[in-house]
Specification:
The complex is a heterotrimer.
Chain A: H1 2-17, H2 19-36, E1 47-53, H3 58-69, E2 73-79, H4 83-90, E3 96-100, H5 104-109, E4 113-121, H6 125-149, E5 155-163, H7 170-201, H8 203-209, H9 214-243, H10 252-275, H11 280-297, H12 310-316, H13 320-334, H14 338-366
Parallel strand pairs in A: 1-2, 1-3, 4-5
Antiparallel strand pairs in A: 3-4
Chain B: E1 2-13, E2 16-27, E3 31-35, H1 42-49, E4 57-62, E5 65-66, H2 71-77, E6 78-81, H3 93-103, H4 112-122, H5 135-147, E7 153-156, H6 165-180, E8 184-189, E9 200-205, E10 208-213, H7 215-220, E11 225-231, H8 234-242, E12 249-253, E13 256-261, H9 267-276, E14 282-286, H10 291-302
Parallel strand pairs in B: 3-8, 3-9, 6-7, 7-8
Antiparallel strand pairs in B: 1-2, 1-4, 4-5, 9-10, 11-13, 11-14, 12-13
Chain C: E1 7-18, E2 21-32, E3 36-41, H1 47-54, E4 62-67, E5 70-71, H2 76-82, E6 83-86, H3 98-108, H4 113-127, H5 142-153, E7 160-164, H6 172-187, E8 191-195, E9 207-212, E10 215-220, H7 222-229, H8 234-242
Parallel strand pairs in C: 3-8, 3-9, 6-7, 7-8
Antiparallel strand pairs in C: 1-2, 1-4, 4-5, 9-10
Helix pairs in contact in C: 3-4, 5-6, 7-8
Classes of the chains: A alpha/beta, B alpha/beta, C alpha/beta.
Amino acid sequence: MKRFRGFLIKEFIHIFRDVRTMMILFLIPIAQILIFGYVIKNEIHDANVAVLDLSKDNITKEISGRIDAAPDFVVSDYLNNYSDIKEYFSSGKGAEVIVFEPNFAENFYGQDNARVQLILDASDPNLSNLINNYTSAIIQTYIADQNMSNSPNAIITTEPRMWFNEGLKSSYMFVPGTMTLILMLITAMMTSISIVREKEIGTMEILLVSPLKPLQIILGKVTPYILLSIINAISIILLGNLIFHVPIIGSTILLLGVSILFIIMALMLGVFISSVTKTQQIAMFISMFALMLPTILLSGFIFPIENMPKVLQWLSYIVPAKYYLIAIKNIMLKGVGVAFIWKEILVLMGMTFFFLILSVKKFKLYI
Amino acid sequence: MNCIELNNINKSFGTIKALADINLNIKKSEFFGLIGPDGAGKTTLIRIITTLLIPDNGKVFINGISAFKNFKQMRKIIGYMPGKFSLYQDLSVEENLQFFATVFGTTIHENYHLIEDIYVRLEPFKNRRAGALSGGMKQKLALCCALIHKPEFLILDEPTTGVDAVSRQEFWEMLNRLKKEGITIVVSTPYMNEANQCDRVALIQKGKILQTDTPENIVASYSKKLYSLKSDKLYESYKLLEKFDKLSAVHLFGQELHLSTNNNQDTTKIVREFLDKHKIEVKISEIKPIIEDCFMDLMLNDE
Amino acid sequence: MNNNNNKIIEVRNLVKRFGNFVANDNLSFDVYKGEIFGFLGANGAGKTTAIKILSGLSYPSSGKIMVAGYDVYKQRNKIKRSIGYMSQKFSLYEDLTVRENIHFYAGIYGLPFKQIQNRTNELIEELGIQEMANKMIADLPLGWRQKLAFSVAIFHKPKIVFLDEPTSGVDPITRRQFWDMIYRSAEKGITVFVTTHYMDEAEYCDRVSIMVDGKIEALDTPTKLKENFGVNLIEDVFIKLARK
């Protein structure tokens, strides 16, 4: 324990004495949050939607059929009552539920107002906006077709309702995204660089011939970054909350817990990178390209995964950031509990152990 | 004729004075050595000669031409081999050579006679990646690449550092053959005994030139008397003699001690008497100094 | 000195293979307590491989090897506690002060805090670097760094210290101060296992082994080696063997 404490003191000295490290650790996250606030654009492709048909008549079936047949939509589920909607969204199966009011056909033919409600999961604001507009367009086309043939005065009103993010603020979306990116990059990059630096200057050899065990060396290098990354995560959440008014609907403790898990995962990934590289530049390069791009592109941060080609969708399954992003989006914006994100937590835990074991093995090997 | 002339060169990096008032004249076809430890300023000096670094003040003339104003011209007549292995690890032996030939607008064929001796030993591995060569082989390839444009000057920064004694000897043999081709060679090394391979050397320490001369003259100009002491209790004798005020210096020299004095005393006798009191038997004889003795003497005088 | 009970390193038939390449080809030798043992060899002769095995950094392919009385296969942790190591790469942290470096390295060997404090002060006094004690290593002259690195390597009083080209590039006076430190620690009973490319430094050793292509081709005192090969310098012995 005493050894470990000495190790920690030394690591903190390294960090606090190096202005560049401090900049990367604390200034870049803030800069990134502010920058990412402006860059998000989306397109839809094969979006899953559900239908809650309270009328079950010819017209509702026809409209549902049209939506299903539209090139960018798939009707994936048919719900039975209102209470199913929340679960549908929480499980992440789709982003829209189309609700037909009871007696829809009667109202339609009876020259009354037939109402259809579009309920959207707006935690991804751009996407939900697009889906909303597109669905409305399909329904309007349907009415136009009907008016031409038999009932010229039929009206359908669509009432969009946004769930989880009623104001449709895009900043709601990018705070979890930026947090994912920053935690991933900073932690993995900083640890890998700091370990490889010791290889470069030759101190690693001394540590290896000392009575310290590989696992102790790894933990010693990693622990300071766990603490600093937690500070980072908290400051991002606070920034999001105070400047962009991003709410935290779910449990803060759960949010922090999942974040710590993700930080540890990223650190282990960093240790692993350091064990397969020899110079700081290469470690930095690998961290940048092998981590940053997938984290931005394949996590669902900027581009919805469901719009991607199948190959990329498969690839996204091995991107750790994807699971973390899903988990914290659900906690922050939907307020769900462990019951809804246990799968993501399990995957992250699995990845953590995978990299830990791999790194310890590699660590012994590379000498 | 002086073909490299350095006048009053000074260079600082921040607050650190790397070179102080360096004056140096190197003659045509001379084999010139810069001898000194790490941090003495050898690399800085070499980078200035190769026009890679501009001094704070002072002038460099190569073939009578101001080097910095005409650096493009200089690069064509200088062949430079930096201290770190500086070839493309992922290119093969032949590709590396080909590349450097192209850079200087020549072909391997044109100047093959110059590198032939060295290259024949590399030829069996010509398709191997440079990164996969042994230390000695890498060094030979680097030398070939520095020579491929038939430079008038060959400038080498610590080519033998970290290389084993055998490869080092081979390397000096190669350089000596190049000297016969009329190439002017400037080489730096931290190994004092390699001074003897050169026509003339400059001994450098802490950014200053301690002495410039032929190795023979440097040894001859050693002003003190030098003795070798051997004993079964060598280290004990050393510890005692360190405090013995009738000597100007005592140095460990492997299995013997080197004692120096500038008094006209019978050193053999007084040392023997001194150590007799501690019941230590010794063999003492007067010897001629080697470059290392001279270097240490100059270092201590300088301080 | 050549007493069997005093063997601190015992190597019998050490073989280390990397695929088809034999880096250490059946090495057998002993090193005795308090000895300064020179381990010479050409680049790529297998020195580094052997040192890694002796210092518990890698396993041999076969052979019986005891270091400080411990088996390199089963008791690597005990070996690591009994040895010190200084590599050719400069091995102190440049962004830590002299004192912080000493504390750190002493700490990883688990020395008690009080003892570290006292010994650090002793060491700083012994080296005469009081006014540099709170300076960063980066601001220290090169010669001092090397001497400090050595002091740190033996701070935990190891039985054996491995020095891998410790004096590379150092000026001749500092080199001698360095060897003076080596002699002093040998007098205290620390066994010194050293590699160098300065052939004249081989003469400082009690015994010298010369490795060529994975095999030990000669092992004796410097004087006897020169006698046996009929030459005046260890360098000539080395060249004769390597060019054979």
